[in-house]
Amino acid sequence: MSFLPTILNGLMVGGLYGLFGLGLAFAFGIMRIVNIAHGEFIVLGAYIGASLLSVTHLPLPVVIVLVAVITFALGWALQTVMLNRMIGPNPVPAMVATMGLSIIIRNALVQYYGADIRAIDIGPLQDQGVSIFGTSIGVLPIIIFCTAVLLFVLMHLLLTRTTLGRAFRAAADDFEILETLGFNRKRVYAIAMGLAVTLSAIAGLLLAIRSSYSPYSGVERLLISFEVVIIGGIGSLRGSFLAGLFVGVVQLIGLRINPNSGPLFGHLAFFLILLAKQANLPALFLRRRT
Amino acid sequence: MTLLELEHVDVFYRDLQATFDVSLTVDEGETVAIIGANGAGKSTLLRTMIGLTQCRNGRIRLAGEDVTRLRCDLLARRGVALVPEGRRLFSSLTVEENLLLAMARARKGPWTLNRVYDLFPAMKEFRSHRASDLSGGQQQMVAISRALLTNPRVLLCDELSLGLAPKVISEIYACFDGIRKEGVSIVLVEQDTVRARSASDRLYCLLKGKVRLAAKSSTVTPEAIREAYFGETRA
Asked: How much is the average pLDDT of B19-31?
C-alpha cells in the first residue's frame, strides 16, 4: 500500500492549517494579542457559510466572499469595541477577554445550531476525482488547496507591495513611530484583526466542506493554529505555510496507521519539534564525540 | 510669527513629574535648541510636542490653534515630525519602504523621494537594504529623511549625535542648512552644548524639568550655559 495519496491529502488539508496559523500569528505579530477565540472564529466561518449556502443557494465562491466580508466586520468590531481598550505591555487582559469571548461564541452556536456534528454538502463536486501520479485525488481538495495558496500569495503581495501592508509590518516594529508618521494606530489594528479573523474563517469554511465540524471544534482548531505558529514562527508567511503542510501530512499519516488516533500524531510530532527546539542538538552531539 | 507654543506645561509619568511649568516658543523658520543633562526632561518635552505623551497641565498651540489634547497621528498630519532618539527605524522594512511609509500620510510640500536622495546622496546606495543592517550614521540619514518626507512645519530632532562618530555628526549637521532653507522650524535636543549653540538661533536650558535659561544662541556666554546646565551658583 502506498502512502502517496495520504501525503497528497495531508498537503491539501495542510494549506488550510497554514491559514489557521497565519491568522493567529498575524494578530500576535502586529498587536501582541493572543486571540484565544481564534478557534471559535474558525468554526464561526463554517456556520455562517453553511447558513448562507442553505438559505440563499448562492454558488460557493460568492458565499466565500460574503463570509470574508462578514468575518472581517466581526474582527474589526472585536478590535474596535473590545481589544483596542486593552492594548498595552501586558498581554493578559486581551487573552482573558478573548477566552471569555470564545466561551460565549461556542455556547451561542450550541444554542442556535445545536451540538450536532455537521458537514457542508456542496453537491456533485464533492465526489469527483482526478488521477495524479497514478493515484486518485479529489477535485475539491485541490480547489481548496489552491484557494489557500492564493490567499497566501495575496497576503504576501499585501504585506510587501501596499502602504497598508508596510504599516502592518511597521506597527509590529514600533507603533509609536508609525503614529508620528500620521497613522491611526487603532485603525491599523482594527484592519489587522479583521484580516486575521477573515483568513481563519475562510479556512474554517473550506475545512468544513471537506470534513466535519461542531460548536466544540474550535478548541481543536486553536490547538492546530498554535502548533503551526510555533513550528513555523511568527512573521513568516512561508513558515506558516510549510508548518501547516507539515502538521497536515503528519496528522493524516497518523490516521492512516491508526484510524482511532484522531489528531494524536500531529500533536506528538509537534511535541517532538518542541523538544528538539529546546534541546541544543548540535551541542549534545559534539559533547558525545569529545 | 510663533509656530509652536508651550504654555506652563507639566508632564507626569504616573506620579513622577518630568517637567515643571515649562513655557517656550518656536517661531516660523527658526531653529531652537533645548539642552540639558540626562533626565532634565528634554525628550519628554519633544514627546509632548508631538502628542506621544499628554501633558497634565498647560497648553500647546500650533500656528495659533490649541492642540493640547490632539492625538499623535493627527498632530503629525498637521505638520509635526519627530526624528526620535536612537533613530528607531522600522527594522524589518527596507530603507525605501521606511521612506515610502512616511510619504503615505504626508502633507503637501517641497520634500519628495528625489529631494531627500539629493540631500543624502549616499542613501541611494543602500536604499534596498534592511534598515537593521545600516550603520548608525546611515540610519540617522534615513531617520531624518523619513521625518522630512512628511513635509513638516516643525521638525523635532532628539539627540542626533547619539552614538555617532564626530565626523559623521559634522556631516549630519552640515545638511541642516539645506533643510532650514525650506523654511521649516527645527527643535533640536542635544547634550552637546557647543554643537547645539552653533546650530541654533535660540536655546533653552532645562534643569530637572524646569527652564533655567532662555537666550539667543549668538549672545549667550558659555559660563551662563554651564551655570544653567549644572545648576551651579557661583561661589
From this structure: 95
Contacts of residue B132, Cβ cutoff 8 Å, sequence gap at least 6: B89, B91, B92
pTM comes to 0.91
Query: Which residues in B lie closer than 8 A to residue A235 (C-beta atoms)?
Result: 92
Show residues of chain A in contact with B88, CB under 8 Å: 174, 176-177
Gap between the Cα atoms of B4 and B68, Å rounded: 11
Cell for B39?
Answer: 533626565
- Residue in A closest to B48 by C-alpha: A180
Beta-carbon contacts of residue A21 (< 8 Å; ≥ 6 apart): A224, A225, A227, A228, A229, A232, A240, A243, A244
Please spell the DSSP secondary structure of A140-193, one letter per residue: HHHHHHHHHHHHHHHHHHHHHHSHHHHHHHHHHH-HHHHHHTT--HHHHHHHHH
User: How high is the pLDDT of residue A189?
Assistant: 97
Nearest to A180 among B50, B93, B106 (CB): B50
Q: Is the pLDDT of residue A9 over 60?
A: yes
- Reduced to 3 states, what is the DSSP secondary structure of residue B214? strand
Locus of grid cell 523658520 = B29
Confidence of residue B147 (pLDDT cuts 50, 70, 90): very high
List chain B residues with CB under 8 Å of A185.
Answer: 73
β-partners of residue A136 are A131
Could you tell me which residue, A276 or A46, shows the higher pLDDT? A46
Pair A220, A39: CB distance under 8 Å? yes
Cβ count near B9 (within 10 Å): 23
Beta bridge partners of B35: B190, B205
d(Cα A136, Cα B155) in Å, to the nearest integer?
A: 66
The DSSP code sequence of A68-125 is HHHHHHHHHHIIIIIGGGT-SS--HHHHHHHHHHHHHHHHHHHHHH-S--B-----GG
Complex prediction ipTM = 0.93
B231 band by pLDDT with thresholds 50, 70 and 90:
confident
CB contact under 8 A, A235 and B104: no
Grid cell at residue B73: 497621528
Angle of helix A4-31 versus helix A139-161 axis, rounded to 10: 30
| Count of other CB atoms within 10 angstroms of residue A145 | 22
Residue B46 contacts A, CB cutoff 8 Å: no
Q: Which DSSP category does B184 fall into? A: -
Q: Which of A166, A172, A179 shows the shortest C-beta gap to B72? A: A179
Distance CA A33, CA A24 (A): 9
**What does the alpha-carbon distance between residue B66 and residue A202 come to, in Å, rounded to a whole number?**
47
Tens-digit pLDDT profile for residues B177-212: 889 888 899 999 998 889 899 999 999 999 999 999
Do the beta carbons of residue B180 and residue B203 sit within 8 Å?
A: no
Which of B166, B145, B170, B141 is CA-nearest to residue B155? B145
